[in-house]
């Protein structure tokens, strides 16, 4: 690993939209010579961080859904906010009851899947949603929603343009939204001096990961 190369693992949905903008802003404080981004599911990204293959993990977090990473070995900082919104294709017609909607679900490998599954527990209407299609890729679920195949909880950062264009619309009101934090996580063990300097520039306060 080159001394001045920053190695990130990021979930797919953040790799496409959030990461490029965030990195551009981060560069204003510390010029970055080289970046290597590994984009994958949450499970794979966590494994890469644990195994030391990357220095940083970029992912969505929810305060009620603790990460699987050991809190005594990793630390994280909140670097942004997002929200999961239940969306369907503009031409979809499934009826007015949530139970009548085919459900486009995340698989277990997905960090967003963990969050959605946790938040939908206890919502009686939602327990009747039957997964029509499952994927760990938010972009794939978005494509299915655009084809009016069902409802998917999709991040605002990923679907902003599709919503503005009117191609995706709300399936339910705001009470079904799931607010998210975006976190950057690193090991507590030392990383390269350049990566340490980058981390120091990200923010002054961290929260246990």
TrEMBL record:
InterPro entries (UniProt xref): LysR_subst-bd
Domain LysR substrate-binding: 4-200
Organism: Pseudomonas fluorescens
Official protein name in the record: HTH-type transcriptional regulator YjiE
